[in-house]
Design goal:
The complex is a heterodimer of chains A (343) and B (321). Chain A is an alpha/beta fold. Chain A contains eleven helices and twelve strands. The longest helix of chain A has 18 residues. Chain B has 321 residues and is an all-alpha fold. Classes of the chains: A alpha/beta (343), B mainly alpha (321).
């Protein structure tokens, strides 16, 4: 999965074998009796000025993955290289200097803004922390950012509760932009907004990307929205990336059975077409990430499950230019060796 | 859905193509100090305003009063004992003929000073322990078990031991009054911080999981500034409530200590001691109990109202209603 669709370009973000396990402790002595494998061995690249969409159902580890990439958690294993600098294992105090390069837009704009700070305080916080500017310069920058995200400058003294959801999200975006980051993780930035505002915010994100040359990791469960904004799409299931491909290819020709099922669930606006759609209904529930099945994580629900799927975790392979799939259906040569080992 | 319509809403100008010249309209105000907003809201809270006036009056009464009413509160005029109000003694005299007004003023000095200082000390320790225990998981167990330990201690015997051990030493070092004052303030302070610590810890535990704390961390705000900028302002309400309750209990604990002979020496008037001295004469001279009782109640009540007003004024969600 080293180079996906970006031949000759060096990735801005390289994630290799990222694991984020949360320990489960119990008993008087808080002994660890297991781990929730929220993100389990995930590797991907994000290239400069592109948007990597990350989709999957709730609880599959998308948000954890985004947060782990920004080192908001201390990751269990793996390497994260941002712009050639390894940030996977360095301690938090040293990471502070690198924070301006990577920022985050949060899901719930209500919860991600401190109710006791004014807009000026919220947008100015990154500047206070990193720029060390004087009042005048800081205020100029705050106004510039408010213009950039389409907020009226008169709102500078207001508090978050005085805004609508869309406006709050703009404040959150302005805060993320304050330090001129190269890379922004958008963690479901539109999930808490209603549809008309969703469109506004997504268009705003696209405009800002054009203007400032931003790179996004766009986490969402909304497949239509990801199709609109993303250049490449990664599909996650139970802590793993099952398929990663350029947008058109993924939507036109999904390879992994899970991606196929996911895409078949997208509602079709045309009623005539809607009737013709064959939905793939998955049976059962997502297994617990604390106790994933042996072999392929999807084997308990896969409509095309085979014997090998329950034994061996499928490796990720390139099935078409830029399209990587982790599924035994596309790993013919490996199948024989796997059968040999099983026998 | 690749070509999403962009509906026009009331959200104001939407063009984001390049910075445009900015013309401030009449509604525009540059960012101003948030404390002005707090003051504006505080002024609208009638109870808080009245409380402030009463509190300032009490402070002036005990602070400036003795300069105006220059009567020695310890002067015994046995022939003038148990008198009612008169021009010579506006609040009358006690059973030893000491002037009640002078005693109220001097007593108030000590009571208010002890109440405020002990409250601040208790609040400081309680908030510190609560925030540290809530925010830093490593010290949580240790600090909260210490809190439990203090809660389980029987307070009066503890105070008794403290007074016995340290009173002499402190009196010699700092003089009688200052030594006892320090001892009592510390004694009340370190035995009254536990409730605050528990409440603050609970709130901090909830607050630190909020997304804005995560956002601050993603910005690279170090933990100490996350605490001062995001956590503390949001736990202000419970702290404020503890503070207003703490000042009342500090005044009352001091009077109880004085009553037991563990506080200030008997010739030092405090409101608590006046109350207890007057108790024996309550049937003949009820005014002797009413005055100190009234002042204790007024102090507590005014501080309560001020705290209430401050809490509302400091919360931007309530502000402006």
């Amino acid at each position: 999965m080293a180079d996906a669709g970006g031949i000759g370009r060096t990735p801005l973000l390289e994630v290799r074998g990222l694991k984020m396990h949360f320990p489960i402790t119990s008993g008087l002595l808080r002994r660890q009796i297991g781990a929730v494998k929220a993100v389990d061995d995930v590797s991907f690249d994000v290239f400069p000025r592109e948007t990597l969409g990350m989709v999957g159902e709730s609880g599959c580890g998308k948000s954890t993955c985004g947060r782990a990439v920004l080192r908001l958690y201390d990751i269990t294993a793996g390497t994260i290289r941002l712009d050639g600098v390894e940030i996977g294992q360095i301690p938090q105090p040293r990471l502070r200097k690198l924070r301006p390069k990577m920022q985050m837009v949060f899901q719930d704009p209500q919860a991600s803004l401190n109710p006791r700070m004014t807009v000026a305080g919220i947008i100015g916080e990154p500047l206070d922390e990193h720029a060390g500017w004087g009042r005048r310069q800081k205020l100029d920058r705050i106004y510039e950012l408010m213009d950039a995200v389409g907020l009226n400058r008169n709102f500078v003294n207001r508090y978050p509760h005085e805004f609508s959801g869309g406006q709050r999200q703009r404040i959150g975006i302005a805060r993320a932009l304050a330090l001129n980051p190269a890379f922004i993780v958008c963690d479901e930035p539109i999930a808490a907004l209603d549809v008309s505002i969703q469109a506004q915010v997504v268009n705003l994100l696209e405009e800002l990307q054009q203007r400032f040359g931003l790179t996004y990791l766009f986490i969402s469960h909304d497949l239509s929205m990801v199709r609109h904004i993303a250049t490449r799409v990664a599909v996650m299931y139970l802590g793993k990336i099952v398929e990663i491909a350029p947008r058109e290819r993924l939507y036109a020709d999904p390879k992994h059975p899970y991606t196929q099922a996911l895409l078949s669930a997208v509602p079709e606006p045309d009623p005539a077409a809607e009737r013709r759609v064959e939905r793939i209904i998955l049976k059962g529930d997502v297994p617990s990430p604390a106790n994933p099945p042996k072999g392929c994580n999807f084997c308990t629900r896969c409509p095309q499950v085979m014997e090998i799927c329950r034994e061996i975790d499928p490796p990720t392979q390139e099935v078409a230019p830029g399209q990587f799939v982790a599924c035994h259906l596309y790993g013919e040569p490996r199948r024989t060796t796997a059968e040999a080992t099983a026998a | 859905m690749t070509d999403l319509p962009r509906p026009i809403t009331e959200e104001g100008p939407h063009e984001v193509s390049g910075p445009k010249p900015f013309a401030p309209d009449e509604a525009f105000r540059p960012p101003r100090n948030q404390w002005w907003d707090v003051w504006d809201q505080f002024r609208t809270h009638k109870g808080a305003l009245a409380g402030s006036f009463v509190f300032v009056f009490i402070i002036l009464f005990v602070g400036v009063g003795p300069w105006i009413w220059q009567v020695d509160p310890g002067f015994i005029d046995i022939r003038a004992r148990n008198q009612g109000p008169s021009w010579a003694h506006p609040l009358g005299t006690d059973q030893l003929g000491r002037d009640m007004l002078a005693r109220m003023m001097f007593g108030g000095r000590i009571s208010v000073a002890v109440g405020l200082t002990a409250m601040f000390l208790g609040l400081l320790i309680g908030t510190l322990v609560g925030v540290l225990a809530g925010y830093f998981r490593r010290v949580d167990g240790l600090l909260m078990r210490t809190t439990d330990l203090f809660l389980a201690l029987p307070l009066l015997p503890l105070l008794l031991v403290m007074v016995l051990l340290f009173r002499e030493m402190l009196s010699q070092r700092l003089g009688e009054a200052a030594g006892v004052f320090l001892l009592i303030v510390v004694a009340i302070g370190i035995t009254s911080w536990m409730q605050t610590a528990r409440i603050v810890r609970g709130d901090v535990l909830a607050l630190k999981e909020r997304e804005y704390v995560l956002a601050a961390r993603s910005i690279g705000t170090p933990p100490r500034r996350v605490v001062t900028r995001h956590i503390l302002p949001n736990v202000l309400s419970p702290i404020m409530v503890s503070a207003t309750l703490g000042i009342a209990s500090a005044i009352i604990t001091e009077s109880a200590l004085s009553f037991l002979g563990l506080g200030f020496p008997p010739d030092f008037p405090t409101w608590g001691r006046l109350l207890f001295d007057g108790r024996d004469w309550i049937e003949q001279y009820p005014a002797r109990v009413i005055w100190p009782g009234l002042f204790i109640s007024l102090t507590v009540l005014s501080v309560n109202f001020i705290g209430d007003g401050l809490r509302d004024a400091l919360d931007p969600r309530i502000r402006g209603r």
